[in-house]
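Q: A reviewer asked whether we had any structural model of the full assembly, not just the individual parts. We don't, so I'm hoping you can provide one. Inputs are below.
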Amino acid sequence: QSALTQPRSVSGSPGQSVTISCTGTSSDVGGYNYVSWYQQHPGKAPKLMIYDVTKRPSGVPDRFSGSKSGSTASLTISGLQAEDEADYYCCSYAGSYSVVFGGGTKLTVL
Amino acid sequence: EVQLVESGGGLVKPGGSLRLSCAASGFIFSTYSMNWVRQAPGKGLEWVSFISSSSGYISYADSVKGRFTISRDNAKNSLYLQMNSLRAEDTAVYYCARLISSGSSDYWGQGTLVTVSS
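A: Here is a predicted structure for the entire assembly that you could use as a starting point for your response.
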């Protein structure tokens, strides 16, 4: 149950696009199409942004998109806005009804 | 409106016990699997435990196995986490979360803080 690997921080200017990577193994990210992404603002509960690799819950802007190649998943945020500044966590199903989270990425909007 | 409200957190001494509760409303609780997820101060999210809709399947993170017990009462729309033999490293905000697919949680509670300290 080792944590998935995410960059500690990423940044971008308003209007730009940023991509956050999430690297796991064949036992989690690479083995299942069950990767999700969460946005967390300080002092708040996590919010689901992407699930099942590419699906967006109702209400999440289409500026947020997900993808996966092998054991690496990615979250892309296009048209960056100030309110996107937050911590982002990836999460993958890891078998036997367990999940594993990434260490989190702090997104700064310059 | 879907709501998850955790309670039961507080300050406990190392070796002590605590029981967390999560009251669910706004959806048919008995049809959803649930997770407990925790977040130590200033740290990332850590999955703690899973329970299926009818309690037929249960799993735990290695870090809490043998010390924590997850349960639910579908008649009371409630989820529980019994935490025994608590350690300083169990200090965290504990969230309950509703599962919509394998591993994805669409609704989270506001969290309850557990502090383990002498």
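A: Points you may want to mention in the reply: The interface with chain A takes residues 35, 37, 44-47, 50, 52, 57-59, 61-62, 95, 97, 100-106, 108-111 of chain B (CB under 8 Å). The radius of gyration of chain B is 13 Å.
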